[in-house]
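User: Predict the structure for this protein chain, please.
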Amino acid sequence: MPPPRKQHYGIKHASGSLIHYRPPVSAITQRRHSAVVPSVLTFAVIVASGGLLLMIEKGMLNSVETPPPRANGKRFARNNNPAADVESQILQEIRNRTIRSMCGQRNTPNSVWSLSPLQRKTLLQHILVNDEHRFLYCYVPKVACSNWKRVLKVLSGALVNVNVKMKMDHRADLLFLSDFSPEEIRHRLRHYFKFMFVREPMARLLSAYRNKFGEIEAYQRKYGAEIVRRYRKGYAKAKKIAGNDVTFTEFVRYLIDEDPERMNEHWMPITNLCQPCAIQYNFIGSYERLESDAAYVLERVGAPQRVRFPERQTWYRPVTKETLHYYLCTVPQKFLKELLPKYILDFSLFGYSLPNTTTEYCRH
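Assistant: Here is the predicted structure, written as structure tokens:
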């Protein structure tokens, strides 16, 4: 029998499992700082009134500030900023409540085994396993998954530390849930700590577009050339196409015509990859709060102190709000209106506001 885990806190999932969020600061500290967290009260009212999804769809959550990353990727001091930490707990709880509410709808798959064979295959191939620390991680491309894979390789002994310079092999020295028998899968789903990380859906798409069509020749040849043939006038029968100049609008049109369940993993919706209704995740972290959320997960799974989440590389090009605004405003609104429904669950389940791409907004 493994030694007992440290106490942690959470709320009950409809299925009975415990949904975790960061351990709270003391009750006295919470009361002392409650007056300086007005957005927490706002969220409480939203949840009580059942209006969260409506507010998400109307973009009303844009004005709510989320707590910034803390501790520069190191183990954070939970009491360093009690007010922000309380708000993080509330945000996590609201996300969990939203998922429970939407996943309680009729005909929604509520277990791995109620998924279609294709859905189940995709899911199990995206869940990484660490038996020593008893956790499951559903990786989402373009949401820091390469760095998480480095962490898993360090924990398994395949890498000395997360900063080793090497080309990432996304299969070697990693254990996937799909490698196990159904009985072994059930055991791990029942007893292991399960987590995933999410990202604003359009920022994730833009990150994939810039990386794959701007830097990766294999993607340019396989996907870029086909996209140009399909959506660029006069290129339908062209034989030699480099595929390295795909426009963002062409990429959006391609996504509109694709089946979400058969998309490449780099732009497949997060809900299709990780199936948050079929698996009751104990923690759902955010790319926007990556450093502090990653630090929490490492502490929660009992990772050695020497294991730190990697810092971003110097060549990393962030998708800023201004960059995303620029690219989205280059796409005709009729295409965006067709694209957004494919990712609507990623917006609503994980609490992201739909982008504002009105003509007036795009003039600025």
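The radius of gyration is 21 Å.
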